[in-house]
UniProtKB/TrEMBL annotation:
This is SDR family oxidoreductase. GO terms for molecular function: oxidoreductase activity. It comes from the Bacteria. Pfam families: adh_short_C2 (PF13561). Gene3D superfamilies: NAD(P)-binding Rossmann-like Domain. PROSITE patterns: ADH_SHORT. Residues 6-185 form the Ketoreductase domain. Keywords: Oxidoreductase. It comes from Actinoplanes aureus. Belongs to the short-chain dehydrogenases/reductases (SDR) family. InterPro entries: KR_dom, NAD(P)-bd_dom_sf, Peroxisomal_Beta-Oxidation, Sc_DH/Rdtase_CS, SDR_fam.
Length: 292
């Protein structure tokens, strides 16, 4: 993949997955705008990525989104790729989640994706030669996850926005896809079933076991970057409106929500008729427990 001449913004790219995305795009020739809320973290990332520039700002509001696009245009002359990776966690079960916990996560993940994508789409449409919006979702948004009302709702919304924007931006040659990554990060270290394996791999320098890489689709942050680079490239020009999972040795295309089974009743359905006729096989939900 050769991204020479392309310009990319990666939000939340001071560390973790975002930093890996930014490094991968730069390594294939793209000019990159790095973003994090912490100036010191931004400076450190820019020092690692030759030719990059940084914007220290919290993602969420329109002002930050416009600053990021302006940084791309002022430093590199254009914008071709946006990766909306910035995010935070405020995990609580429903009855313990505060308004502040909910709003903070929705603001960064969902509103931040919206404002940044809107600013990027305006610029890409003005340029007139297409672009790539790569929105980072999560398995929690696809299946739900205990204690993550705010995060799961935001990530599900991001996948829905990807489908909507793919429709709206298709004529402009702008593709929009949701990426569903699974990787060993500070967040996954908090999962009891994964933590010992991740810690052992980091301590010994040994690769993750095959069951983790294949069955769970969990590997390093670098394992996720190939999909980001592909979606940023011209090779993905016909891929849009999709939710694509990646992690470890696994690459997966997620299905879209669709009617699984349908019944009809002349004149409509009463509550009693529904009770009498209910024989649908329910869908599973929740992220499956790891199998070691």
């Amino acid at each position: 993949m050769d991204l020479t001449g392309k310009v990319a913004i990666v939000t939340g790219s001071g560390r973790g997955l975002g930093l890996a995305y930014a490094k991968a795009l730069a390594s294939t020739g793209a000019s990159v705008v790095v973003n994090d809320v912490d100036q010191a973290v931004v400076d450190a990332a820019v020092a690692e990525i030759p030719g990059s520039v940084g914007v220290a700002a919290a993602v969420g509001g329109t002002e930050t989104a416009e600053r990021l696009v302006a940084a791309a245009v002022e430093n590199f002359g254009r914008l071709d790729v946006l990766v909306t990776n910035a995010g935070i966690l405020r995990d609580r079960v429903l009855w313990k989640m505060s308004d502040e916990d909910f709003d903070a996560v929705i603001d960064v993940h969902l509103r931040g994706t919206f404002t940044c994508a809107r600013a990027a789409a305006i610029r890409m449409r003005e340029q007139g030669d297409g672009g790539r919006l790569i929105l980072i979702s999560s398995p929690a948004g696809q299946r739900g996850n205990f204690g993550q009302t705010n995060y799961a709702a935001a990530k599900a919304g991001i996948a829905a926005m990807a489908r909507t924007w793919a429709l709206e931006l298709g004529r402009a040659g702008i593709t929009v896809n949701a990426v569903v990554p699974v990787a060993a990060t500070e967040m996954t270290k908090t999962i009891p079933a994964f933590a010992p394996v991740i810690e052992e791999a980091e301590r010994t320098g040994q690769p993750f076991p095959a069951w983790l890489r294949r069955d769970e689709g969990l590997g390093t942050v670098e394992d996720v970057t190939g999909l980001i680079t592909f979606l940023a490239s011209d090779a993905s020009k016909d891929v849009t409106g999709q939710a694509i999972g990646i992690g470890g040795d696994r690459l997966a295309l997620w299905s879209h929500p669709a009617e699984k089974a349908v019944k009809y009743a002349d004149g409509g359905w009463t509550a009693a008729a529904i009770a009498a006729g209910w024989d649908f096989v329910p869908e599973t939900y929740g992220i499956p427990a790891p199998r070691s």
